[in-house]
Structure formats: C-alpha cells, structure tokens
Amino acid sequence: MNEIPHWLEKQNDLQPTKVAIEYGEHQSISYSELREESRKLAKGLMKKGVKSGDHVAILSGSRIEFPVCVHALSYVGAVIVCLNMRLSPEELAFQLTDADVTWFIVDPEFVEKGHKAMQSTTLNEDHIVTMDRLPKAEDSIYLNDHLCLDDVFTMMYTSGTTGKPKAVMHTYGNHWFSAVASALNLGLSASDKWLVCLPLFHIGGFSILMKNVIYGMPIRMLDRFDAKVINNGIRHHGVTIVSVVTVMLQRLMKDLQENSYPASFRCVLLGGGPVPKPLLHKASEKSIPVFQTYGMTETSSQIVTLSPSEALRKLGSAGKALAPATLKIFVDGRIAKPYETGEIHVKGPMVSSGYYKKGHQEAEYLATGDAGYLDEEGFLYVVDRVKDMIISGGENIYPAEVESVLIGIEGVEEVAVTGMVDDEWGEVPAAFIVKKEGTDISFEKMATYCRDHLAPYKIPKQLFIISQLPRNASNKIVRRKLFQSVEGEQGHGH
How far is Cα 108 from Cα 106, in angstroms, rounded to an integer? Predict the structure, then answer.
C-alpha cells in the first residue's frame, strides 16, 4: 500500500511546540495542540457514529475549527465534502444529496442555512453537528496514524458556470504532490509564513491547509479578505507568501498606496484566471513579487507557476508545468505550434482521477476547458475559458484579452466582456463596465482607446455601464448573466 505517516503526527514528532496556525486577533495553536484537538474530535465523532468511508460535509467560514475538523476526519478515514458557504439552501441541498453525505458539520453562523438545505435531503437532525458543540472524547479508540495516498480525502464542487456542479475527488496523494510540486518551484524557507485569505472550502485556500501540515510551515488565517489587515500582516507580522486572485491584488495595491513590502516578503501567488497586463506592470513598478499561476479544482490547486527567476522576463505568463506535471496545447486533436491558441491539457499526480459518480478520467491528459498558448520557450499564456470564446465573422475573440485592455481605461473599476448576437457577424463583443465614482465613460472614449490596442473586430460594439458584475459563489464572473444585469439600464454603441 502506498502509505505515508499521518502528516500531523509527523509534525507533532518533529516540532510539537512550533506555531502551526495564527488566527483571530492574537491567537495561535501549536502542532501538538492541533494534533490533540483533532484527535479528541476524531474520537468524539466516532463515538457519535461517524466511521471510515463516510461522506462528511463541512459548511463553514475560515475559523480555527475548520482545520481541526479536516484533520479529525482524516484520523477517522472519512471523506470530506467541502461546501461553499455562499451557496443558497437549494444549491447546498443538491450537493448534499449528490455527494451522498451522511454527516453534516456546520459553522454556527450558517446553522439556519444548513437546516434549510437539509429539509430536502434524507439527512436527519441527529446527523448535523454544529462547530460550537463539537463532540470530543479521550477514549482509547484506534485512529489512522498513516495515510494511504490512493484514498479519496476530499470532494469539492466545480463552480458550475455551465450546467450542474460536479464533485471533484481528491486523494491524499493529489494533495501531497500538489504541496511538494509547489515547494520545488517556489522553494521553502525556515522563515516562511503563508497568509490564507482565500476561502478554505475552495482548493486555493484548502491547499494552504495541506502545505501547513506537509511542510511544517506556519500559516496566518483570516476569516475574510481585508486589504488593510493583509498588508499589515505582510509588513509587520512576518508573512512571506500570500495567495490571491486579481481583484484582491488590485485592492491590496490600492490600500498599500505609497508604502512598500519588506524584503522578507517573497511571493504573491496570483491565480484565478487571466490577469490584466497593466496590473502586472504596476505591481512590477512597486517591486511586488507577483508570481502568476494556473490551476483548477481538478488539479488540486496550481499545476503551472512562473518561477521567481522568470517573473519579470515573462510578465503575463503563468509559467511552466510544475516538476511532476506535463502540459500540452491541442488544436483539433493535434499539438499546437508556438503562439497558436488551443485547449490546455495537463497530466500529473496532482490531477484528480475524476468526478464522483461520473466515472474516472480515462484519457491520459485532462482537457481543462481553458484556452492558452505556449511561446517558443514553452511558457504558458492563459487566454480564457474555451466556452467563453466569441466567434465573430469566423474570428476567435477571447473576452479576457479585451477585458485586459478595457481595464486600462481611466475610470474603469471592473469590466466584463461577452458575446452578443449580431445579424452580420454572428456574434460581436459587448462590454460591461463598473466605473469609478465621479468618472464618466462614453462609448466613444472606450472605442478610441481600444483602437490603439485591439484589432477592429475585437473592439466591443456595445457598452453597458452597470453597478456591479454578476458573480457566482466562487466570485467568478457569470458571463451568461451579464445581459440580465442591464435590464432597465441603457447601453450605447453601434
């Protein structure tokens, strides 16, 4: 059997008194305390009836009980189903049922939502546990002291920007190789401290909980994104790495103003989709070490990351596949030439074997559904989701490329682009802009700016000024809802 010692047992053995997690205002927990709490909870849950192989859902924000529950369930041998706290009761009910959940752990803040969701499932009241009443026990009950790398550990639902969400299955091995691959790329320093401001129920946040116990590296856990608090953590509390998405980096830089980060701060890991070039240039001017990365739930977080030495030379690239991973671009079943955009395919030991109840990944490579190209040196540039592509008069237009230009217009706060039906071209791009307070953006201003940066067919033919962009529970823009958000608001263009 492909086994390793339980990672929390290993850290308790190596550095029991070292701080594992900082949380709250000034609270922290050491590796020995984290182990003790997790083992007590594991025994309490087993006494309650939770057993190896059970599917246990967690609905929670980023609070210290979350990692304690995660490690407790690994001691039991249960499978964790991570639920997004932003979902509606109806969406939660679908996932609870689809994932065959038998036990449900709920943050007190979401008890009402949890109960509503349960009403249309087969779960009963005896099988819901709230985090303020977690069962603890001291009995001598056998707990897993080893982890089998082939066993399924977590299930996380893909955002479902189209169709019903699917549960991605991750094994202990997927999480292990994801953490190891990241360390081989970014390096690991004895002084490292990773700040977690991404939700723990998403792979980006969850993967940092894994690094915490696999590396023996302390993490600083925030219950929500707060630019001021994060910048304070980086500048005054020894944070050396932070994982963010584009909108977070924009807010961090806005809050930072004329200040700068200390030399000890070594990495902003930036994922979550294509990034506007102007933002990367601005970060570079302020000497902010931004490393673009590419990954998805199916790849257990990052699978391609720009190495530190190439960060400025290859600005805008997501880098190369991490050490144990391979990457190819396919166009119509053949391998793409350099600079030819096609669909990104990946393989490696961090790639999920498949979706729950949907069969295993049979192909050698995982087709990601994302579009990108490799340059002549093999660096990946992510263009957009394949399904978001606009085909206008036979020309392919990727919304992210147009958005990257539009964000450079003075007064633009946020932007999204999608296709709209056109009698002549089949489809043409339409722009949806959230403008900064006190600014004015006209169609003419936008079109004039775009003429210097885009081919004529890529310039949006319609502009809508809206108050906010429609996003799903993962904070991703839902392009198909853009037109719904402009009902009653006037668009202008030609």
Answer: 6
